[in-house]
Amino acid sequence: MRDTKGFTLIELLIVVVIIGILAAIAIPKFSATREKAYFAAMKSDLKNLASQQEIYYSDFYSYTSDANALTFTNTDAVTVLIAATTSGWAASATHSALGTAEGCAIYYGTATAPGTPVAPTQPGEVACTN
């Protein structure tokens, strides 16, 4: 009589196919989760910038485009561009992993809303491309 311990080649191939199908489902979902995290970091930076601008305004009665004067520090890999007038400010944020075509923007007061990467429709609203 033959010893029937162990797995057959067919059983092993079926397991490999099932693992492949599960991986094919999981990898795109992981990629989408990473992109959501990038956008969350940009939104968080712009909201922190808004708070810092209001603190600066309460001290100096004007807004500034100097991040050092605001004591604002952006998240790693996020680039924040600030434009300010005495009665308003605008900012846009991009993430190095996403490129310059995707990002978030915000404006407040009489400042012109940033047109790139996206234009917010209302002052104080953080708008993102995704």
Radius of gyration based on Cα positions: 24 Å
Tally of extended strands?
4
What separation lies between the terminal Cα atoms? Answer: 65 Å
Mean pLDDT: 90
Total individual domains: 1
What is the percentage of strand-forming residues? 15-25%
Helix content: 40-55%
Structural class label: alpha+beta
Shape, per Cα inertia axes: rod-shaped
Task: For the largest sheet, list the strands in their spatial order.
Answer: 1-2-3-4
**Count of DSSP-assigned helices:** 2
Can you summarize the main beta sheet?
4 strands, antiparallel
The topology string of helices and strands comes to: HHEEEE
Name the poorly predicted regions: none
Q: What does it look like?
A:
- Helix content is 43%, strand content 22%.
- With 130 residues, the chain is of the alpha+beta class.
- A hairpin with a 2-residue loop joins strand 1 (78-85) and strand 2 (88-95).
- The chain has one domain (9-128).
Write the layout of secondary structure elements.
Layout: H1 9-60, H2 67-70, E1 78-85, E2 88-95, E3 99-109, E4 127-128
Antiparallel strand pairs: 1-2, 2-3, 3-4
Output the keywords.
single chain, 130 residues, alpha+beta, four-stranded antiparallel sheet, 2 helices, 43% helix, rod-shaped
Short description:
This protein has 130 residues and is α+β, with helices and mostly antiparallel strands. The mean pLDDT is 90.
